[in-house]
Design a protein that fits this description.
10 helices; mainly alpha; elongated; single chain; about 250 residues
Length: about 250
């Protein structure tokens, strides 16, 4: 059965009515969720937004399912941005100061533990700091997989196999190059983080309206692309082919 937490807000009323009105079977709710995935959604997705974002804790943070953790993450990111961008704190200085505070805390804890045990008559065990090997292996595997996927996508776009994807990539890179003139890299990452923490939540709340508008916009974009392909791209291809034939002759 599909986890109810993975169902978008736009469809939660159905499940609430099913649970409040009468005891429905699991298959009935599953059938509804299957029909739900067949509706037209943004970018043609066929899964709930929570599942698209990966599910689990990461999706819960992005969609503010766990408001406390999401608030802590936003506060941490904002604090880092203020320290490095507004106060001019340097990364090396920050790492050194954080390491000093951590080492002093452990030093005081380890040396004062014996005196504390004399008064409390309890044994305080100092934990051993270790990092599991599986963490590095899983991280390396994920990074390698993402890198290879990015290379395949880059090759597919750069070699001209899909002219629409090529034009979209060029337009996106051009927009990013313009935005890069206005903000520093850290500010750009912070803005991207704020967008990641707000847009999915707003989209989930206004999902049906956004999908309807996006579908109309996508139809119009396809029409304009068809005109561009007919008047420009096809003429360029014909010109290139004619130039090759003239050179061969």
């Amino acid at each position: 059965m599909l986890d109810p937490v993975d169902v978008d807000i736009a469809d939660s009323d159905f499940l609430k009515n099913q649970c409040d009105g009468y005891e429905s079977s699991d298959s009935e709710i599953d059938n509804y969720c299957m029909a739900f995935t067949c509706k037209n959604r943004l970018f043609g997705r066929q899964k709930p937004l929570h599942v698209v974002l990966g599910g689990g804790l990461c999706a819960d943070i992005i969609l503010w399912r766990n408001k406390l953790i999401s608030a802590y993450v936003c506060m941490g990111a904002t604090t880092i941005w203020i320290l490095f961008e507004k106060l001019g704190y340097h990364l090396l200085t920050f790492v050194c100061h954080a390491t000093i505070i951590f080492m002093v805390t452990l030093f005081l804890w380890s040396n004062l533990a014996s005196y504390i045990n004399i008064f409390l008559r309890t044994a305080t065990d100092i934990p051993e700091i270790t990092i599991p090997k599986d963490l590095f292996v899983s991280t390396a595997v994920c990074l390698t997989s993402a890198y290879n996927c990015a290379l395949r996508t880059f090759g597919h776009v750069a070699f001209g196999k899909d002219s629409r994807a090529f034009l979209s990539a060029v337009a996106l890179l051009w927009v990013l190059s313009i935005v890069g003139r206005w903000y520093s890299f850290l500010s750009f990452l912070y803005i991207a983080f704020l967008i990641l923490m707000t847009l999915p939540l707003l989209y989930e709340c206004l999902e049906d309206s956004v999908d309807t508008f996006a579908e109309k916009a996508l139809i119009e974009i396809k029409k304009q692309y068809a005109v561009l392909d007919e008047k420009v791209l096809q003429n360029l291809k014909k010109k290139v082919i004619s130039d090759k034939n003239s050179k061969q002759q």
